[in-house]
Amino acid sequence: MAKIKVGIIGAGFIAGVHASVLASDDRVELVAIYDVVNDCTERLARTCNARTAQSAAEVIDTCDAVYITTPNTKHVELALAAASANKHVFCEKPLATNVSEALLVVEAAEKSAGVFQVGHNRRFAPVYATLKQMLAESHTPHSAHIKMNRGELLKPVWTGDPAVTGGFLFETTIHMFDMVRFLFGEVESLLAIGSTHEYAEVDDFSVLLKFTNGVHATLASSADASWLFPFERVEVFCHHSTLLTREMETLVCSSNIQGHFAEQSMQQLPREEKWGYLQEDRAFIDAIVNGTPPAVTALDGLMSVKLVEAVYRSVETGEMSDML
Amino acid sequence: MAKIKVGIIGAGFIAGVHASVLASDDRVELVAIYDVVNDCTERLARTCNARTAQSAAEVIDTCDAVYITTPNTKHVELALAAASANKHVFCEKPLATNVSEALLVVEAAEKSAGVFQVGHNRRFAPVYATLKQMLAESHTPHSAHIKMNRGELLKPVWTGDPAVTGGFLFETTIHMFDMVRFLFGEVESLLAIGSTHEYAEVDDFSVLLKFTNGVHATLASSADASWLFPFERVEVFCHHSTLLTREMETLVCSSNIQGHFAEQSMQQLPREEKWGYLQEDRAFIDAIVNGTPPAVTALDGLMSVKLVEAVYRSVETGEMSDML
Amino acid sequence: MAKIKVGIIGAGFIAGVHASVLASDDRVELVAIYDVVNDCTERLARTCNARTAQSAAEVIDTCDAVYITTPNTKHVELALAAASANKHVFCEKPLATNVSEALLVVEAAEKSAGVFQVGHNRRFAPVYATLKQMLAESHTPHSAHIKMNRGELLKPVWTGDPAVTGGFLFETTIHMFDMVRFLFGEVESLLAIGSTHEYAEVDDFSVLLKFTNGVHATLASSADASWLFPFERVEVFCHHSTLLTREMETLVCSSNIQGHFAEQSMQQLPREEKWGYLQEDRAFIDAIVNGTPPAVTALDGLMSVKLVEAVYRSVETGEMSDML
Amino acid sequence: MAKIKVGIIGAGFIAGVHASVLASDDRVELVAIYDVVNDCTERLARTCNARTAQSAAEVIDTCDAVYITTPNTKHVELALAAASANKHVFCEKPLATNVSEALLVVEAAEKSAGVFQVGHNRRFAPVYATLKQMLAESHTPHSAHIKMNRGELLKPVWTGDPAVTGGFLFETTIHMFDMVRFLFGEVESLLAIGSTHEYAEVDDFSVLLKFTNGVHATLASSADASWLFPFERVEVFCHHSTLLTREMETLVCSSNIQGHFAEQSMQQLPREEKWGYLQEDRAFIDAIVNGTPPAVTALDGLMSVKLVEAVYRSVETGEMSDML
Q1: Cβ pair A198:B256 closer than 8 A
Q2: Which of A106, B12, B162, C105 has the most CB atoms at less than 10 Å from its CB?
Q3: Do C267 and B229 touch (CB under 8 A)?
Q4: Neighbour subunits, A (≥3 Cβ pairs < 8 A)
Q5: What is the percent of chain A where pLDDT is above 90?
Q6: In whole angstroms, what is the distance from residue B227 CA to residue C268 CA?
Q7: Angle C298-317/C99-111 helices, nearest 10 degrees?
Q8: So what's the ipTM on this one?
Q9: The whole model's pTM is what?
Q10: Between chains, do B143 and A208 touch, taking CB under 8 Å as contact?
Q11: Which among A258, A265, A267 is the nearest to C265, CB-wise?
Q12: How far is CA D1 from CA A185, D26, D36, D140, D182, in A?
């Protein structure tokens, strides 16, 4: 079988992660790289033995599948172009940085003959994939208590520029808005309070979420505090049990009233597997090869954008956001 | 100087804790004990070398100061009687199990010639007292993420009986509603979601709190999950720092963006000091001896009852509770 | 059946612990207390509703069973007297503070008609009792790495006085010398290095132990370092598994090569059960009532004294101590 | 200034780490790669844009400086060749897998005009570099308790082949024998016990070490247990303080008798910096450029080989090994 020709648009850190994973997949041939910064293009192209392209359009034209790994606010234009060209598209999160544009991408993805997958890698990370399985099989969730902090918006410097990220929640915390849908289903309503301290945008959030299935959750997300471990933590309270994740490092299950627990450690896993990158890239290629639906759809991408936008709106208005 | 004659009404576990602390205070003479269960009265009276009284009224009549350590729903009647008799009163939390009765007690306390202190011991626990001091002196709080779980409402069995406790939030979680006022000031509004799973009452809560000074907080409180350590945890996010408590065991301060931290361990302290019982009893006697205001007033007691009632109301109505 | 009349000689902290446990045992009547300090005698006698005796001899004469809970260097004389009088004896650890005297007590215990049990409580603590069971049933030990520190010899002040303790190793570390025999069987030989830093005795030890069954172990014991948790830790290395205890708080079992583990937490247990005091006192009374052998014999007490003495000798000579 | 031409002999995992670090050093030009496996040579050469050499000799001939990153048992021959050719040599640990060959390399290194550095990277890892500094400046060590485990000798498979590694201690644990010299100075004598369980070599060790300055230490090293975190831990007991490292992740300092501590977390550092690879490679190039002595000398390499050999000898004979 002919190999799938893959191109990458945007040659920063996350592009390198995907390139390295794709290089180990026999079904794939990495053929073209493009970044607006020439040096980045060349360095990544050399590492993965691919061609340097002169434009994003050239990548789309000459490949079967395209990875969009540019800054957040550049995703939409490229996603529309690639999907319209009926190419397979792997679009990094967020799908867009506002709902109206996200809707355009969903429409294009639905019309396209290609597979369209969004890069919500945490669904594939063993801690979260296992948590999801436990909730589905044996631990019906009652409520959750969630934290998704960053220590700062200084390193790299663009993480503090909303013109690049679309806003702090679109960059990091959006992972958790996708995660709560993955774990608990659709959100019925939410109320959020935010405040601004260190950065030129709202950088500290408290959110209350109600899900259609009755689950409820508290979520804190701060960019102005610290990297005190764990800065990303999900606690789910079930029938006399607590399930807890710390980063993508450990998954704890305490299913008794003594305080005993079992802890799964992911420390021995390579980072691309621990963080789910390996699995999401395999899943994308699987969907292309097998003609099956992608594991994370454009609609999933839209829904997490909707939640982020609803949080910003609630912070502004002081009102609950109804999500239905 | 004549010793202060102290009596205790209600001779359960927490009465024993106070009795043991008071026994080590030279300014105090423990004179009378009463409990509706004779065995309890006798056991405690023997341990602390005090008289067994035949009624609560006898304790109030024959003592200068009265500890009210009965079940929650019995506090009000005894508090009113003792305050009206111008005795010094140490009333265990909650002050009452509804706002209207709490108001009566506040009124009686204000009219009384005696000191009136409420048993919110956590204010005196070194982890929380130190946290308070750090927030006041060097770490202005931005937001907080708080958990206050119990593993079950089975042991002791009365913890699951709302006729005794007034409701789960009045028994355990009320500590945290007093704590947030202690740390962050008055609550402006709150929204709460609750659900019922294992017990004959709402046993799982998610709460969003807004304070008048702009601080906001998420608070989870569950009685149906587990005793996974830490079941009581306060995280405060400040200017590039995180302050964290685990139970009353440890206080962590991370004031940098590397993830380094300093941890104060209270493990070597005796339990009555670690939990603040020693300090609150000393403070009560100090207030009596020095004629100074009590450290935790009837008004403080009322305010935490108000917050608990507001949470129950918000759960019922689905609406925000305005606290001002 | 007539209750067993128990007396206590030595009315310090540990006496209070045993008294409290015995008070909850229906088969026991606490009748007499003696301490060379009158105040201690009286306080404990009042708490447990017992008579104050005028001498140790009076306690021995008037009781069926005697607890010896005096300072370490006073155990031998009392143990000899009580055993010779054919009384049941519970002698706190250490049995003696040198081998020659320990041998005398073993001899007296063997001749006595009474039960003779030594207070190596850790054998009964759930973390260690469970560890022992796991090693016996499913995890054959290969080697062990053990730490038994104290943070200081200042509180209480007598812990730093070898005239009272018999030497630091006789006070605290002897627990671990009994524990290794309990877990791994008899020691074949050992080599120890010690040094003197903060106190008027050797206060810092490194020990290498070889057991007759081929197990080997490293043991560190310091009185001059800190109370950094855990100060008492046993790690046992088995067939691709590690068993680990921290104080008497937690027991960890990692039986895989991924790093996953299960942790049993004892935090919810009352202290007297967590530390094994409840169980050892029940076992002592069981042995009396049932005429069965004690759970920890005078010979066990002797063997741990032998190990401590061998460590001190090895430190002095720089030579291996042969234990067979 | 002309760039230093660096070649690499042995193109496995650790070669890739050094290549990546060297690629970011402007003073260096990576020119030639050789491995007995052609595929490895080609992959690494492509990644770092270097030439594939046809032999080790070609690398030595055509470069100013040579990295020897072959399997352990191949180090000596290459180190002798490169040093004799007066090239700068970075030789991965162990310097050799026996003392007699290590002596030959030391001799060659001393005669050579080139810099000779041994790859004991842990000296440069921030946890250990900081620990060393604290011991030197403010915390005089009394004794230490050290664990250096591996979870298995299965992944990669060659780790279980003594023909490749020279023996388990030469592969992983030798890091710790270098570390104790780095921290505490020269070893005066040691006694070791070993046993064989899962692998075709002694795989479980207990060691007692005495240093010339009076410090003493216990060291456990097992390859047959588990990856329970932390598998590498150094605890140093000082004047009422404990310093503790866990892997190269965290450094804890507890300098009081309450149990409080400060923890430095290295979690935010990139792996090549956290593990000291970046710093050791910079130090090697610094030594070349500045004509200064290397940070880890051939003599250091020899001394750690001597300690490993002494442990194996002690295990075999049952006798103490005198190191002076």
Answers
A1: no
A2: C105
A3: yes
A4: B, C, D
A5: 98
A6: 8
A7: 170
A8: 0.96
A9: 0.96
A10: no
A11: A258
A12: 62, 11, 33, 44, 34
